[in-house]
Amino acid sequence: MSSAALFSQEKDKKDEKPKWDVSNPYTADWKINEVPLNTDEGTWMNLDVSPDGSKIVFDLLGDIFIMPIAGGKSTALRSGMAYEVQPRFSPDGKRISFTSDAGGGDNIWVMKPDGSDAKQITKEDFRLLNNAVWTADGNSIIARKHFSSERSLDVGELWQYQLAGSDGLQLTYIGCRLHHFYHLFSLISS
Questions:
Q1: 3-state secondary structure (DSSP) of residue 125
Q2: Could you list the residue range(s) of the whole structural domain that residue 138 is in?
Q3: Judging by beta carbons within 10 Å of its beta carbon (0-12, 13-18, 19+), is residue 160 exposed, middle or buried?
Q4: Is the dihedral of CA 90, 96, 97, 99 positive or negative?
Q5: How many structural domains is the chain composed of?
Q6: 26: Cα separation from own chain's centroid
Q7: Which has the closest alpha carbon to 121: 91, 99, 147, 93?
Q8: Which candidate, 117, 16, 96, 14, places its Cα nearest to that of 51?
Q9: Distance (Å, whole) CA 10 – CA 148
Q10: What does DSSP assign to residue 138?
Q11: What is the pLDDT of residues 102-144, one digit of tens each?
Q12: What is the C-alpha separation between 165 and 162, in angstroms, rounded?
């Protein structure tokens, strides 16, 4: 190998930027000041009630919390730089699905109700996923996958993902009419 080719390869490695990490986005030129926040109310939140009616899981400012339905102190299940929203209990109450950008883009994740064993279910790196709902048997999740074009609003398709892992099964197509979406959601929730 010539020395010119070797020099070129070394230069290319120096020019490579490290992969961006949503949980650690800081660079030397950032000045971050953390500010404590205590609140007893929120807005633009998503919440769900556990199947046994004893707990509420909710998001607030991109973090996920759980608390007794009777009231009291909430416990953070997921917090940090990743934006995590739309928590939903599984039908048996043993898992919670949520939307997170921890992997770099909005994907569907699942965790236990104590916040442990978080696992990324979908692996999209371009099209975003959100609004996940559980199937009645609790073995898969149906989520909305976004597609952008010249239109001002995203168009969505519904995809089903097995918890055991899969590339997903497309349930609807971009060309579907809106009333088909409503009909499918009514079937899922019944």
A1: coil
A2: 45-189
A3: middle
A4: positive
A5: 1
A6: 22
A7: 99
A8: 96
A9: 38
A10: S
A11: 988 899 999 999 999 999 999 887 778 999 999 999 999 999 9
A12: 5
